[in-house]
Design a protein that fits this description.
This protein has helices at residues 2-21, 27-34, 38-53, 56-69, 73-84, 88-100, 104-114, 123-135, 139-152, 159-171, 175-188, 193-204, 208-224, 230-244. Helices cover 78% and strands 0% of the residues. It folds into two domains: 69-189, Serine Threonine Protein Phosphatase 5, Tetratricopeptide repeat (Alpha Horseshoe); 190-247, no CATH class. By secondary structure, the protein is mainly alpha-helical. The protein has 14 helices and no strands.
């Protein structure tokens, strides 16, 4: 009897020690302690096993769980790292975390400040700034950055840059150029974001039948996607569906 009670308790204590020593979000303590047994199993699956296995799928699962439990963690850590050492790398990390939280003004400023000197042609910094400008409704400022990135900078013509170009051209009412850029992004960029944005663009420009075909394709892909990773893909599918005025 005592052995049966003591073993789960010891298991929970060891996991709590792991939470504290590895700097995990303290909410895990509540999960482990207030969901006896089940909480510990959840922690093992989403935190301990991904760190031991090192696989991409396991890492993505762990990152998604941590993001759900503590969505501000990366921003806090990036901000602290930048305050301790304001390097370009830490500034870029903070800019990305700011953008992830919707702080696009901060992200744009941080990317712009970092893209100077030897880093003036850094593709990551330039693309990050361009995306922030698009989110701020400043596509006219983003476009020269993107055109310079894709035409003048080695390694700058990435699938992500094509997607940003499509969004900028669309915002500036240049549909033919937007179509070419979106199409290139769909062909080169994995995931459902390029398809969802392209389908939404087609819906907004009167190409409803093509947009509906793309939504159907996304539905087929989502049906085959691991449920753990379906939420993000569903958001891009819904973006296109909303442009069509359908659920």
């Amino acid at each position: 009897m005592l052995f049966g009670i003591g073993l789960p308790l010891l298991f929970a204590i060891l996991l709590c020690v792991h939470v504290v020593r590895t700097g995990q979000p303290l909410i895990w303590l509540s999960v482990i302690l207030f969901l006896p047994g089940l909480g510990g199993v959840i922690y093992l699956i989403v935190v301990v096993l991904p760190s031991l296995m090192g696989g991409t799928g396991a890492q993505r699962l762990g990152q998604a769980a941590r993001q759900t439990l503590d969505p501000h963690r990366e921003y806090r850590e990036a901000k602290a790292a930048h305050e301790d050492a304001p390097t370009v790398r830490n500034q870029s990390r903070l800019a990305a975390a700011s953008a992830q939280m919707g702080r696009h003004e901060d992200a744009e400023r941080l990317y712009a400040e970092a893209a100077h000197g030897v880093h003036a042609e850094d593709p990551v910094l330039l693309l990050g700034r361009a995306n922030a400008l698009i989110e701020l409704g400043r596509a006219g400022e983003a476009l020269p950055v993107l055109e310079r990135l894709t035409h003048q900078i080695e390694g700058g013509h990435t699938p992500g840059a094509d997607l940003a170009l499509g969004r900028a051209y669309e915002a500036l009412a240049r549909p033919a150029e937007a179509d070419r850029a979106y199409r290139a992004a769909v062909e080169r960029l994995p995931g459902l974001e390029p398809i969802g944005r392209y389908a939404a663009f087609m819906a907004r420009t009167g190409r409803r039948a093509e947009a509906q075909d793309q939504v159907a394709e996304m539905d087929r892909r989502l049906a085959k996607t691991n449920p753990r990773f379906r939420k993000e893909g569903r958001a891009w599918r819904d973006l296109a569906a909303q442009a069509l005025g359908r659920p």
